[in-house]
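Please, is this right?
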Amino acid sequence: MKTCSMLVLLVLTATSGLGAEVKTELKTVDYVDLNRYLGTWYEIAKYPVRFEKGLVGITATYSLRKDGKILVLNAGKKGSMTGKDSRAKGKAWVIDKKTNSKLKVQFFWPFSGNYWIIGLGAEYDYAIIGDPSRKYLWILYRKPKMDEALYSDLLKQIEAHGYDLSKIEKTVQE
């Protein structure tokens, strides 16, 4: 009986992952100079998220706080570029001080989310933000419009990170 129970347990354990998608570890960029990263970014595209539903003209502005954390100001317009302002203020902090590429972001206590920089332009002109679960994704740029060739290149990077490109939605900026 013991042998039979052990065999059933082994079979259940061995097959429990069948059908589950295996994802590799999400790789972040090697290093982020936070001073260069600060400033305003325009959201070019994203995986849709509930808290941005109906918003256009979305920006994220980062500045250094006195305590060393980062002040996060997200802004957008409801419905159209002439719509009502929508703003959210939060904070971010580095969780991987060796690379500065893994951060946590918090808009209200006690909840926080991963903010992993998985792509970054050499001139800090674009950034790709993700999280290990691959449920969240943002493409940020220093200007409201991105060249289509660059956007296509970034989509290739994103796909290489294991993201489903069919879920990406462009953000209206003008």
User: Anything to note?
Assistant: The radius of gyration is 20 Å.
